Structures are given as structure tokens and as C-alpha cells.
Amino acid sequence: MKRLHRLTAILVKLQSGKVIQASELSTKFEVSIRTIYRDMQALTDAGVPIGAEAGTGYYLVEGYSLPPVMFTEKEANALLTAAKIIKTNNDQSLIDEYQEAVDKVIAVLRTNQKKKLEILDKRVFMFERDKVKSSNSLAVIQQAITDFRILKIEYQTASKEYSVRLIEPLGVYFTNNTWIMIAYCRLRKDYREFRTDRILNLLETHDFFSPVLFTLEDYYKKRIAACDGQS
To answer: Which residue has the higher pLDDT, 3 or 31?
Structure first.
């Protein structure tokens, strides 16, 4: 990778807001850590406010914004194809939000790139899965997960049991053409899984819950361990 391209790619990674280690960049770009140190110094000399924490990594100083990122044709093609895949899922909010993102990408492409994308759009097709009851709540749920916001839902189980619950959303996963939300249910006082297509109504409350350490990986490890203990 030419140095200019590498410096641009490093800027894009820094713009993600994460603290990035020199070793991570060294592995990604297949260069020495010393080269990464020189790249960071070059960016700093060019006026990019990069912060560094000993033993932690590099980060972009808050408040600094980079110019719009230009996409390559292959990257734009990948986004268009991903949009078609997403359209086959059963949550309309995810479809709408992703399409808006793709539209913004297309808007910054050059004219000849847009024409090529129009050709590809007509030549890539995804056969939809069997239609099932759809949902329209994933975008709100995802936002609530990162905001630690309590949600109020009206929910109906497979046996048509109706309930109103206050929940603390923690994660989501997709299986069997259905989005599943994992949340702490204040009604049951325990973790529960909710199919989004069975949420009859969803309301964002003005209340927040305390952040908790939660990953899907840890959740399933505990779940599997519990099942093994009962067998």
C-alpha cells in the first residue's frame, strides 16, 4: 500500500472514535511499528490533532472532523450489494436507515461511478425469503442499547398472551428470519428474549438504566453453561 493511501486509511480508522494501537495498525497495513510511528508523526506535522496514551494507543482529539470520505468503486459496489441483502430481512426500520446511508454514499460518487453503480443495481438481485410478519422497531432498539434507555413495550407471546413491560435493552441477534432482542425485563426481574415481530407497540421512555457489562458472547456462554448444568 502506498504511503498516501495508508495515511488516508489510518485517518478513517481514527475517525471511528476508537483508541487504536500501533500494533493493530502495523498488522493491518503489513508494515513495521516504526513505520506506523513515522506515519503518526507525519499526520501530526500536517495539523491533524492526534492524541496518544502510553500503553493504550492513538486517538483523534474530540471536536476535529475530517473531510468527507471518498469511496472506491469496489467499496460502493459492496455497499449496494449489502443493501439488497438487508432488504430481505424482516425489519423495515433497518431497511430504511441503511438505504439512506447508501444514498449518501452515492451522492458523493463521481458521475462515471454513479453510472456504473446504476448498471450494477440492475444486475444484482436477491431472492427474498418466505415472507413472515415484519417489524419496524430495530432502529429504535439499537439506539436504546447505546443510550441505555428504558423502553416500554406491548408484547404478545406465541400463545397470544399480552403484556406491557419496561425493559432494559442489551443486545440483538438475527436468526430464522427474525430479529431477537435480549433485555432485562423489569416485570419478570430477569433477562428475557423478545421477538421484534411480536412487539405490538414500542415507546422510548425518558428514563435510563445504569450501564452494564454485556456481550452476546458472554451471554451465550452463561446460557450454555446453565443448560449443561440442567442436563
So the answer is: 31
- Identify the pLDDT of residue 130: 62
pLDDT at 138: 93
Reported as half-sphere exposure (CB side, CA atoms, 13 A), residue 10 has a value of 34
Cβ atoms of 75 and 90 closer than 8 Å: no
Q: Which amino acid is at 103?
A: D
Q: Give the number of C-alpha atoms closer than 13 A to the C-alpha of residue 167, restricted to the C-beta side.
A: 27
Most confident of the ranges 108-117, 129-138, 183-192? 183-192
Query: What separation in angstroms does the CA of 220 have from each of 171, 181, 193?
Result: 12, 13, 12
Kindly indicate the confidence band of residue 48, based on its pLDDT and cuts at 50, 70 and 90.
Answer: confident
Q: What are 79's three cell numbers?
A: 455497499
